[in-house]
Design a protein that fits this description.
46% of the residues lie in helices and 11% in strands. By secondary structure, it is α/β, with parallel strands linked by helices. The longest helix is centred in the middle third of the chain and has 19 residues.
Length: 225
């Protein structure tokens, strides 16, 4: 029985990865550090903001103390907010898919994005009420590919519904190899949305081209196995 669906945010619900790259790029350019969009998708996309800055600086052989990382995270968040202003960043069909799924089972988000960024978009699109739980970058000690975000989402869903929920009763919807690894490690069934990476790079129980083709009946069959 399908008990819940947990969605990644960037790359699944929101077409925001290009904006994240621009925000990282613009902030780092002010310090004379550059990196390409190809590098971002190949090396850094799976990290939360702190890890992007820490890892990228280390890759460049640069020292970046925690205080500097924190400053860069704040500046990047401000830049992203500016880039998002007055535009919808949802993928086509996402609004209807989320509302359809929420009418069937509880939903949650497990993301490496900051909570304020997730809620800002959901509030603007009037989708916040569709989710029983939101797990953001600041909510777990370890980010994807560690299982922590999905384990936290599972705990919050159990609390919200008032009944213990098992990972095997839930499905994770992800767009990246790191996210799928995180969900599998937590014991979730997996759906890959091939919007950010080619389907051949994604190991999942089901692979779909876009979120608007999400089949709730197929998800129920996954959990019945």
């Amino acid at each position: 029985m399908l008990r819940a669906i947990v969605f990644d945010f960037d790359g699944v619900i929101a077409n925001s990865e290009p904006l994240h790259y621009r925000a990282f790029h613009d902030v780092l350019a002010e310090s004379g550090v550059s990196f390409s969009e190809r590098e971002y998708y190949a090396r850094y996309l799976g990290f939360d903001d702190r890890e992007v800055f820490r890892t990228l600086m280390a890759d460049r052989g640069l020292t970046c103390p925690a205080s500097r990382v924190a400053e860069l995270v704040v500046r990047k968040a401000a830049r992203l907010e500016h880039l998002e202003r007055d535009v919808s960043i949802l993928f086509p069909g996402v609004d209807a898919t989320i509302r359809r799924a929420a009418a069937a089972v509880p939903l949650a988000i497990a993301s490496g994005a900051l909570g304020v960024e997730i809620r800002r978009t959901l509030d603007r699109e009037r989708l916040t009420g569709c989710f029983s739980a939101i797990v953001a970058a600041e909510d777990t000690p370890a980010s994807k590919p560690a299982p922590d975000p999905y384990l936290r989402a599972l705990a919050l869903l159990s609390e919200a519904t008032g009944r213990p929920m098992a990972a095997a009763e839930c499905v994770a919807v992800e767009d990246s190899p790191w996210g799928l690894q995180s969900a599998r490690a937590a014991g979730f069934h997996t759906v890959a949305v091939a919007q950010t990476y080619e389907a051949s790079a994604l190991e999942a129980d089901i692979t779909i081209a876009s979120l608007d083709s999400l089949d709730l009946k197929a998800l129920g069959q996954l959990c019945a196995k």
